[in-house]
Each structure stands twice: as C-alpha cells, then as structure tokens.
Amino acid sequence: xxxxxxxxxxxxxxxxxxxxxxxxxxxxxxxxxxxxxxxxxxxxxxxxxxxxxxxxxxxxxxxxxxxxxxxxxxxxxxxxxxxxxxxxxxxxxxxxxxxxxxxxxxxxxxxxxxxxxxxxxxxxxxxxxxxxxxxxxxxxxxxxxxxxxxxxxxxxxxxxxxxxxxxxxxxxxxxxxxxxxxxxxxxxxxx
Length: 191
Prior knowledge:
Layout: H1 9-15, E1 16-18, E2 28-30, E3 34-38, E4 44-49, E5 53-56, E6 59-62, H2 63-71, E7 76-87, E8 90-99, H3 107-115, E9 126-129, H4 166-179
Parallel strand pairs: 8-9
Antiparallel strand pairs: 1-2, 3-4, 5-6, 7-8
C-alpha cells in the first residue's frame, strides 16, 4: 500500500486513478504504463509499453531519454534506440544513427559521449549508422525493420591479444560463436 509520490501531488493524481471496480471512492489503481489485454482464457497478456520504457538486465530505461541525448551530439542528425534480442535471453540496447551531412561518427566517439552523460547501463552496446530510417506508412520510424547490428569489436585493435596455442584458439572461437562478437581475445571478459 502506498499513498503516492513523495512531494509530487500532480504525479500522484496522474498515476493513481480511482478504481472503477470498487465501491469505495478512496480505492486507487496505479497506472504502470504497461499495455496489456485480457485473453479469452482469463489470463492477461503483456503487449509492451505505452511509452518507450523498457527493462534490460534489471534496469528500467527510457529509450527516449537516450535518443534525446544522442541527438545532441554534433555529428548526429537523428537517433533511434531499440532493444534487440538477437541471441535468446540476451537483450541489448542498439542505437541507430542518422549522421549530419558530411559526418561519419565513430562508435567509440558516440559511446564516450553517452558515458559522460548517462549511467553505463543506459549506453547502447552497438551503434549502427544509417543513411535513412525505414518508415511506417504513418512516416514514423519502423523500429521492427531496423537492421541487426554487425557485432564487431569496440576496443582499439592495439589491445587485442591473440590466442597463443590451439586450446586458446578453440576457446576464443567458441566464445565468438556464442556471443556473436569477433574477434575475441584471450583477455576479454565475457560478462
């Protein structure tokens, strides 16, 4: 049981609405922002979010916040952030970027920019530079049609440590296949 948001009566009034299923006028329901529907079997099916809030690795993240900050970068004209699960159970934030004319922002440059302004868990693991976004018939970004990112090593090549023997080579090949990232060096932390 909660009384609402501390020192935020307008937000409390917006999010804690009267319960239409109760006779007691003091009963309230909390509007979570989740989009659901009742199924014929009586279960509730989660369809997504009303807003662009997502949950990745236990953190609630507002995708629009990342998009806004990334769009302020001098080399970025427009940005779209999505959650991809190309490997089952491995949700990742991916940034799709339309560069300013004549600009070609580097992934490391964009990552450093965001790290200076956001917590690390909100920084996308991949950045994909596109010439144009795929659009829906309503001229909105078709997030489902954005291409899968090519998993490439983000760190400078000078830090790469190659496998020394056959066993290390086999292990790095296994990790490359499992994680979908190439190349993996013997000192990488797979977490």
